Amino acid sequence: MSTMTASPADWKDKKRYLWLLGVLVMGLPIYGYGLVQWTGLSLFWWLTPIVVYAVIPFLDRLIGEDNENPPDAAMTPLNADRYYRWAVAAAIPVQYATFIWGTWMAITGDLRWFEMLGLFISLGMASGLSINVAHELGHQTSKIERWLAKIALAPVAYGHFYVEHNRGHHVRVATPEDPATSRFGETFYEFLPRSVLGSVASAWELEKTRLAKQGSSVWSLGNDNLQAWGLTVLLYGTMVAWLGWLALPFMLFQGLFGGALLEVVNYLEHYGLKREKKADGSYERCQPHHSWNSNHLATNVLLYHLQRHSDHHAYPTRSFQTLRNFDTLPRLPNGYAGMILLAYVPPLWFRVMNPKVVAHFNGDMTRANIKPSIRDRVLAQYRSATA
Amino acid sequence: MGFAMKKWRCLVCDFVYDEAKGVPDEGIKPGTRWEDVPEDWTCPDCGAGKADFQMVEVD
């Protein structure tokens, strides 16, 4: 399958209006409620997980991959087109409507337990998707978009992501030092606490160091972590004042679920991949072969091209609509939506992905990022296999 | 040198390129002006390109 590049003169972005699906998907829990009312079927409280875990992976199989890159001559106008900035920012009001409505419904709706569970998971998933919106905004350089990133992270209580992703993850990606890079042989359930706790600690240290250089305390208002977490305190506080204390555990747990959804995507993105260490102890620059990619169209339009991950790490401020596919990249067999289902079942994940990592390194596993406790065993196994 | 050395900060990860220091490890000599840094040079920490650097006031 080759990368297609259209002629620049009459090139049109076929995905232009599809990007609005990233906005619409934020309202899934509310549409589910509409379907419950319309059909009388309680099943639709679960519409969001049904769409994300079943419909999207199915569409990825059905529609398959989209390898098209915009022609070089179209890049500059495409990048400058303000429409694409709006297509991301518009997700935020929908996300807030869903969060406020969902929390209100959970407290006042008199729901049965399986309806409540469906609502809770639905809200958590919308929150998880909102971290992807914040990701796109947080990489932009305009002040307003960077603030919108913090606002998008408030309902999911994941404010440290704003700091850690750009200045931590992008610096240490595909090294054993990065909490958000998963290791060969590491299950998602081992990765999850390591990534969350490691990222929070790292975000705090980064701001402490930055503020110390300016002569400020880490506890000052200039701390981006405190600003972003402060928005969560403000939002949750307002909701509690309105709906009572019962709203608090509901909001916190949906946030945890949202965080776990972001982390399972982190788990996919760099599994087992590692940058070479140079003689002076520093790492080689992040190269395209240090990320797993997918061109599956359905997930890509929902996630603003997040799956064109190599190009993102090579050009972190490149806007989503201009991210490119390259033929030689490490490639996942399905979209992220399908791959997270595998990641939830470690034996299946290892069965599919471990051979891909081994093949990627041509059997030389000394170059892989391996879970330390099994490193010797893995090296011995593949040394004998390649010898 | 005729005028003051400047610093350029990576907008992605905060790495600072100091014209006075250059990056000798990568063959960019101390005193290399930002405009003389090769166009395909990228941030040593996060890989962002030159376009993602912004001039900062000297501390």
Q: Which short descriptors sum up this protein?
A:
heterodimer, A: about 375 residues, mainly alpha, globular, B: about 60 residues, mainly beta, three-stranded antiparallel sheet, about 20% strand
Order of helical and strand elements of chain A: HHHHHHHHHHHHHHHHH
Note the beta-strand portion of chain A: under 5%
The portion of residues assigned to helices of chain B is: under 10%
Largest interface: A-B, 17 and 17 residues
Q: Count of DSSP E strands of chain B?
A: 3
Q: How would you briefly describe this protein structure?
A:
Chain A has 387 residues and is an all-alpha fold. Chain A is 60% helix and 0% strand. Chain A contains 17 helices and no strands.
Structure write-up:
The complex is a heterodimer of chains A (387) and B (59). The two termini of chain A are 33 Å apart. Helix content of chain A is 60%, strand content 0%. Chain A is built from 17 helices and no strands. The mean pLDDT of chain A is 94. Chain A has helices spanning 21-24, 28-39, 47-63, 72-80, 82-89, 91-108, 113-138, 143-153, 160-172, 188-213, 224-243, 247-269, 297-302, 309-314, 336-343, 346-360, 375-386. With 387 residues, chain A is mainly α. With 59 residues, chain B is mostly beta strands. Chain B is globular. Classes of the chains: A mainly alpha (387), B mainly beta (59). Chains A and B meet through helix 9 of A and loops of B.
